[in-house]
Design brief:
single chain, about 250 residues, alpha/beta, Rossmann fold, seven-stranded parallel β-sheet, 7 strands, about 40% helix, binds nicotinamide-adenine-dinucleotide
Length: about 250
């Protein structure tokens, strides 16, 4: 296994989640020193508890990483905080809920990036991967939810579209400091026993590869974007979606 991130210090948020777990494994296999964080503690998997929706907690996370390792080479923003009514139908979404989700999922990506980029600028190096989605790039196909009365949250499209273009802003602003900022936009990922069979079937039919993705199929492209093998790639939104957005 190539150690393409040997000794690189990488902050990974949302490390206990579906994509976070596998991303931590791939980062470690690649030789990285991973500062894995989640709102839920998990000592067994070396996950530290930080709430990335709170400014003070983010400040503490940056101080912790600097005290422990003295540098930050990479950041992967995988945390996915959302309100309890996330997934409410468009007509019923309360403005307060919309605001809270934008604040937790978009505004805090701004804040984490701002703090990490301060450090990367002094180092004159670094690589950030923000997480978008197919629904940050194209409109929703609601037909894949209709058999079970599901939907896709309206704020999700606004947030993911925002993250993807904010990423381009950062790439442009920090390119001259030898810092790369990219986004990765996953398509649907199979989550054992969590998705309705009709969703899986309909999604798979539309995917050019005839299936949903696997968490490791997101983790390895993330490693690639962080690594020197991607040294001329910045401001890019990498679609990892089995071809969903190609047609
Ligand atoms: N899974 C998919 O099919 C898919 C598809 C497209 C995009 N994505 C994106 O990938 C990202 C990760 O998705 P996932 O499927 O792994 O989600 P997930 O819900 O499985 O994991 C998210 C993790 O974030 C953690 N988290 C929540 N609030 C937090 C907070 N305040 N501070 C720190 N950690 C917090 C959760 O505890 C959880 O472990 C999200 O941005 C999501 O939109 C996922």
């Amino acid at each position: 296994m190539s150690k393409r991130l040997k000794d690189k210090v990488i902050i990974l948020t949302g490390a206990k989640g579906l994509l976070g777990k596998e991303t931590q494994v791939s980062l470690k296999k690649s030789g990285a020193k991973v500062v894995a964080v989640d709102i839920f503690e998990d000592e067994m998997n070396n996950i530290l508890t930080f709430d990335v929706t709170k400014e003070k907690e983010i400040d503490k996370l940056i101080s912790f990483t600097m005290n422990e390792y003295g540098r930050i080479d990479g950041l992967v923003n995988l945390a996915y905080p959302r309100t309890e009514d996330w997934g409410e139908r468009f007509e019923n979404i309360k403005l307060s809920s919309w605001r809270e989700n934008i604040d937790m999922q978009l505004n805090m990506v701004f804040y984490v990036c701002q703090k990490v980029l301060e450090i990367m600028k002094t180092q004159q190096s670094g690589s950030i991967v923000n997480i978008g989605s197919i629904y940050g790039v194209v409109g929703n196909d609601f037909s894949i939810y209709e058999d079970y009365d599901g939907t896709s949250p309206a704020a999700y499209s606004a947030i993911k579209g925002g993250i993807i273009n904010f990423t381009r802003y950062l790439a442009s602003y920090y390119g001259k400091f030898n810092i790369r900022v990219n986004s990765l936009s996953p398509g649907g990922i199979l989550y054992e026993n969590q998705q309705h069979p009709s969703f899986i079937e309909k999604y798979s039919k539309k995917s050019l590869l005839g299936r949903l993705g696997r968490p490791e199929e997101i983790a390895w492209p993330t490693v690639f974007l962080l690594s020197e093998e991607a040294s001329f790639i910045t401001g890019h939104n990498l679609m990892v979606d089995g071809g969903w957005t190609a047609i």
